[in-house]
Amino acid sequence: MTMTETGSHLAAPPGYRWRWLGLAVVLCAEVMDLLDSTITTIAAPGIAHRLGGGTTFMQWLGAAYTLAFALGLITGGRLGDLYGRRRMYLLGAVGFTAASVACGLSTGPAMLIACRAAQGAFGAILIPQGLGLLKDMFGPKDQAKAFGAFGPVMGLSAVGGPILAGVLLGADLFGTGWRSIFLINLPIGLAGILGAVLFLPSVRPTRGQRLDPVGMLLVGAGLVALLYPLVQGRELGWPWWSFALLGLGAALLTVFAAHQVARSRAGRDPLVLPALFRRRSFTGGLILGVVFFTAVMGVTLAFALYLQLGLGYSALRASLASAPNALGIVAGSIVGGAVAGRLGRRVLHLGVLVIAVGLAALAGLLATVGAGLAWWHFAPALLVLGFGLGTVFAPLFTFVLGDVAGDHAGAGAGLLNAVQQVATATGTAVLGTLFFGLAGPRPDAADWTAALRTTIPVAIALLAVTFALVFLLPRHASDQG
């Protein structure tokens, strides 16, 4: 296999023979991650009953994964830059699969939480390699199409996780019960490992580079200090220390940024290259991503809670009711990926407007029909909402990572994933707290309906900010002026 040089990094040629099969391997990892970040939603009560855990245990089934994932994201991406993305993909896939099996074999709450944390840690090594590998395998013309494949996978996996959990729990395959939701990763993981060996390019740096251990410690501690109170704060009533941790997290990340600048000026390898932030597409895309994901993930959580708490849906039924949203994401991703090259940043404007229309339609539905809603009432608004989401996803990835040099693509992808994690947690905390506060202490269906109806305009306001932030981006992903 011949390689071409990109900066200080060797890359597979743009016409890499197995690039589309390689894309399927990358998406396999995304499926495992997204399924495991959502699949415990429906299974948590049953797992707690079987293993003897309480409500705190159920919260930590998700929190252990999220925090460990965030802790290692940027470092995981940088490991791929330094030691080869295929090698790190394989390490992450093997570790993630093994941790999934260990989850399925857990005998108590502590063991399961520890194994969930191990899943998150290996996921942090695995996931950032995907976007870097796409840059290695695809030339500029095909990158938008490759990034466009992420939207459908994200939508279907996010909705499909709870549905799959319900099916597996109901089927009780071979008497495995709840354990099957983790053991299902074994065949998926083995397929990803085999595919990586066969179809991913072996790409390595051209010069020796070193990790930045101080930077790793600072960014990891900073992200955990930010995310822990955002994940747990609402459940604990926002104690004083949660705000202290948020301040500490912001301070640690500020020190991390200064450390990266100093290290770069000294001619030493930083964890995140400060020069990346001089690129309008990268910096503007990250800022936009913070506001965008805060809005859409926050309101998505509020809607999911409304279906279960306000309308009395089970988690499985709520997931099925949200299926039109996933279908819209698939369609929007296909369209967004196809027109992004021609429309440039205007496709992001279009997507944000469509999302706002979908949310406005949902708010109007709540105002006119009220609490007497059936699942099919939501379908048109959710389809429009999903289409807008899909239209934004693919071009946003292209803008943020399209012009990042190959030897820093992993760190850039890790940073983008970290931004998504922080924004998702922020949206969940802020809009979730608003939603519960508006519902009141003893809410009925009408109270939950009114709470969601009032929360939606806040998300639309954040989308208006997102629309304005799109102007920070160059007209096209390849323009840096």
UniProtKB/TrEMBL annotation:
Q: Which InterPro entries match?
A: MFS, MFS_dom, MFS_trans_sf
Q: Locate the Major facilitator superfamily (MFS) profile domain: which residues?
A: 22-477
The Gene Ontology terms for molecular function here are:
transmembrane transporter activity
Keyword tags: Membrane, Transmembrane, Transmembrane helix
Pfam families noted in UniProt: MFS_1 (PF07690)
Q: What is its main location?
A: membrane
According to the record, the segments passing through the membrane are 20-45, 57-76, 88-111, 117-134, 146-169, 181-201, 213-231, 243-262, 282-306, 326-343, 350-376, 382-402, 414-438, 450-473
State the membrane topology: Multi-pass membrane protein
Localization, per the record, is: Cell membrane
What are its GO cellular component terms?
plasma membrane
- Official protein name in the record: Putative actinorhodin transporter
Higher taxonomy? Bacteria, Bacillati, Actinomycetota, Actinomycetes, Micromonosporales
